[in-house]
């Protein structure tokens, strides 16, 4: 059984394979009367788009989104919004090798074990190309939460982390790594070039912060905001870890270090000022009004030129080398995907919260 | 809006507050004709039960589970299984302080911000006492997956980790910490005593492994096995981080280090032997046949004797000290809860997989 | 697989069998800060309670509801509301006959075919006793929609219909049939007595109208208000037909007869006056502001003293007579159940509508 | 809030408006390894296609379906199947009148009341054109239940019913009315011509029977097979009533008349022979092995040439005449839609049943 929908009242469904004619998303539950055109979505797809530097796959996909339903005279109508992106650069190549043998680190073996059939062309449905549909859906979600500002950045590549002292949000768009630390960005150029030349690949850690989220979003006990974010992030291709706020570091703090003390609001409101944010803006599964902060670990790209032992569908030993066009560090292009999922979860919870307290 | 159900075809709903008359779970979707009595569930509740050593809260709750529906002559009938646990030791005490001020690190402020009303007695619904209902439901789930063995243990307390060289599964039940390393268990006695005496608290990391899971469970793209596990674990009280397999460490490996190479099965089956398990038994959101491995970070208990700055409901500054009976390290009793959630997710996916391939 | 939950954002789950220790409902998604006590629910259970006249089953059940969670100091907290009703009068009798053979018209054979196991005591989970849990849940739902007035009545018993000219809402509570036509109520006394004496049973038609529903509730395309009502009503034990507004009669009208013409509101509002209500208050799956009107057909009670040919579990021919305590016309006590389901569907859609437009 | 998905484990989502560029369905949860091509779906769309006789709308839509995802080398892969149908004949016309005033009997006013915006072109999302997507999805569902034969027919137009004595399944495809009674078909020609000439419209009753359904499908208490069918049918445009088996007629039978007696199977199996089928093949919400029988009432088309009093968006009185291309009896083309929904519900329940008993 597959489940290709995500969300509770803002609910999107994606479809499409890496090498099919197109892929898309149906976004259901969007409120009516919001201004929406392709121009609201395209910039986010452009950020995720491959082939923009030598550090990402050279597959050339314009990733033009079309809105096929759900708007009238430039506004949403409350009906489902169908978004479609055509696949253009499905390079006609010989898939013989990956058709025959399972690529370690990829879903090849698992898909075969589950479904008894496998679209091996570019990984089929398991390809990270599917995340383009999430990014498009995320563009719609952002319109629902104009009060929220979402930023994701690469905090670490191959174990080399940014220096918080150098953090500058504006740097993110000035280098090919969504890196907020210009010194780290420069180091990463070298790291990435070396990995690529070695036929190897690197992992990455993405951080994402959403500010402007009011206190009160999140639906305990089983649709907690952090729980939904964890599902959203862990479901992104190549992700192996998720942290909220201080994350695993919190497990090493003492109670008095980890508590986020509160003080009366300096602006005179009845909302507290928090003196720290180890909680990552979420307590008891509900937003506290502080920035919602998530960290996401991406494993290194599994498609590498180094031969790896594997088996083929007949169960025989084989070695495999994954040629073709691949991101040497899939985590980088993960940043816009993390942002999109953050937007989708928050928009869903905004609407959910309205249901009960509206 | 609250969501108090979890699961897709095996679906449980919990109810109850820390200081209400009772709490419970309704487990829906359990297959018929399984032998089930209270004796199948009680041992798991006993593992989680408080007051068994000086290292956990001294609240005395027998946590006796009653089955109120769903069985006939000792067997499940396919109808909903209602499980109830009465609250016994709701100590009659003065809640004045926590009724007036928000405890930092707790959900007090967030619940008030969301609901505009708060059952402050012991944290109400946000209390970790709710996890007793999950553990009871988990007891039912285990009957659905007899082929799977699930073990959770504490791998780290206050930053002090077990030594993998000392790992012995049988040790887990021989100390009050679910610790598989006897040397670490001894060190932790001292750590815990010191923290308790200092009026402080400690965090912990739990590891959980499920062996015997066949390849093929998991429902991409949005009900991936790892995604559902991440939601399940992050939704446990005090959890701030979740890793699958190598987790964040994978982000620091190179592609060739992280790949889990495969070789023909030594047992002659058509299932591969994997030469490592960085993937934690899941690829593309689907189980691979290797053990499913999860790591979960618990923050230190927020209820501490050290005064912490906060505000009261009127928005005025206050300092708060949380007296009463608390676990100095909530992560310890988190181990049976992690096991239960692992069982619930796996049982759900076993049934889901049957729907499509049965 | 069983599904024992109903609703989308106001979602309730029921559990319990006819002859188990208790039955109940967990109501999830109720908004916070509503006044709620057992006294808000009990009157609806009392209306449905058996043994109040010679025309219903003589089983004596006090049907006392207990609220086990979800309220604090008399108000809802936004957390799940657990309602429990103990079974008292499970008469210790010999179930030999129905344990051995399938009662035609009942779910005995179907449950055995589905589950391979059957709690034959009073029909187990398939007993209409489960509807007590729905009625209790409906009591909570009504608090969410104070603007709506819901009334159900018996419009027809054994083919003998009320005369619309005699319709008087106040009569409903003055006779044992929820009959708004005193003349019909008198005739039905005789009909019912005759059927009971003959060891036979009668069917009934229930009508239910909800006034005060504003225009705009309902969630096309697949959670239309009428679609959800149809599911809710058809799911009640013994129901075989559901109509909205003019129902099947509409299929015999011409377009110009069936249209509900509109005129500017006589009260000066921008809401139209409708000149008829063939639509039953719903167009395109959305409420129009007119009363929402449903008609529901109940088959005659299947438990009768007349012998009916059947088979036993071994597949051999048998004749069966269903002795014991039964309603000669289950439709009568269906009226409070229809009201409850109407309340539950409307409350759910009120909250849903808020999510999008709040 | 809108909900545009239907089903539990076989789940489809539709999108698209009457006058948008296209409409479609995403079918999720289809088992892998089934042969599927456009040729499996197109015949059902062709049955529903308008413009095939003078008795349906003259809008010319080829309704060519394209499969955009979910298959590989002619077989399903277990991933979502995206189906798209382009709109071709969106006649460029003046919508001035219906843009200004609400058409009685249509969803115009209700959509405006709900969403505050309305795509008035051909009814937008509320148009019965959306049912083409359901019919396409139904084509996929049929592949999942090859053991089931589904037939729907028109049993009544404008109150003129077929004669059961004349019933011949093969006649259904020999006349433009899906009519199994040739004599009735002939009468209906005249009825329809007269109604069309009078600028009026007629209602219809559709019957649908599914044979080959094994005993045991259906998921009590809230996903009963009859309950899901009632939702599915009531959700079709223009439907106002649904009956299972004897339906409302059952409410007029006595218990001994309505019971479906059972006898040992004449074929020696352990499945009973039923001596009647008043239950319509469903007891307790579970299939019994008899044919599943549904009756569905369609109101007369609301688009008529007869002027009807209404109001405009400003709340002023107006009269409206709906010109353009319309079906004089929408119920006729409802037959393939009823069949599709029957297939979708049954396929969903087959997979659900597997989850628990597979």
Summarize the structure in words:
The structure is a homotetramer of 358-residue chains. Chain A contains eight helices and 18 strands. Chain A has helices at residues 38-48, 96-100, 108-115, 131-144, 182-197, 225-234, 255-258, 330-357, and strands at 5-6, 11-16, 22-28, 65-67, 71-72, 75-76, 81-86, 149-157, 160-161, 204-211, 239-244, 262-263, 273-274, 282-283, 286-287, 292-298, 308-311, 317-320. A five-stranded antiparallel beta sheet of chain A has the order 1-2-3-7-4, with helices on one face. A five-stranded antiparallel beta sheet of chain A has the order 9-8-10-16-11. In chain A, α1 (38-48) packs antiparallel against α8, α4 runs parallel beside α8 (330-357) and α6 (225-234) runs antiparallel to α8. Chains in contact: A-B, A-C, A-D, B-C, B-D, C-D. At the C-D interface, β1, α3, α6, β11 and α7 of C face β1, α3, α6, β11 and α7 of D.
